[in-house]
Write a structure and sequence with these properties.
The protein is mostly helical. It has helices at 2-26, 43-61, 64-75, 83-88, 105-118, 127-144, 149-155, 160-179. The chain has one domain.
Length: 188
């Protein structure tokens, strides 16, 4: 009898904890074009942190998409982390294909994070998230000539930690410029 009572109590606690975590994550509705955030450290420090975390995570753990998402979640303090976003990124490295002929996973991770930051919860105008993603796309085009995994890896000398670090940096720059009024001088 005590065994069943204990299981019921623990089950109820686990359910309330899971509901509480879901409510905390669900309260972030995303940022809009009109939103401005105050940050508590210099933009250059946030940008450098995003680069370093991305590079380190990819070096230690692999998985360019999830490493990009994890680096941005930790570095960009004004956007709450989301475990589901990290989990969703877990199979999208290497172009999500065995031959790498699709988008670079780091590029995809940048898109996931930008979408989480300023995407919509319902259908509507997605112009802001598309504009910000195009800025990251332009950086890939300038640096690697492509966003395709195999092309990026070839141009980067197969240095995926560097690709992830740069992608996290570029994404942080784009987001800080949009939401924290960081000008082009913040560009590393």
């Amino acid at each position: 009898m005590l065994h069943w009572a204990g299981m019921l109590i623990l089950g109820g606690f686990a359910a309330r904890t899971a509901q509480s975590e879901q409510k905390n994550e669900a309260t972030f509705a995303g940022l809009t074009e009109k939103d401005h955030v105050d940050i508590d450290k210099p933009c250059a420090d946030i940008i450098q942190m995003a680069y370093q975390l991305g590079h380190d995570y990819e070096s230690r753990h692999g998985g360019c998409c999830r490493c990009t998402v994890a680096a941005l979640q930790k570095a960009i303090g004004f956007v709450p982390g989301d475990k589901g976003l990290f989990r969703a990124a877990s199979c999208l490295d290497g172009g999500a294909t065995p031959n790498g002929i699709q988008n670079c996973g780091a590029f995809t991770g940048a898109g996931m994070f930008i979408g989480w930051t300023c995407g919509l919860e319902t259908f509507g105008n997605t112009g802001l998230s598309h504009r910000l993603m195009r800025e990251v796309f332009q950086r890939f085009q300038q640096e690697y000539g492509s966003v395709l995994c195999k092309d990026v890896r070839e141009r980067a000398g197969r240095d995926c930690p560097e690709v992830v670090g740069r992608t996290a940096r570029w994404t942080a720059e784009v987001l800080l410029r949009q939401f924290a009024n960081a000008g082009p001088e913040q560009h590393l």
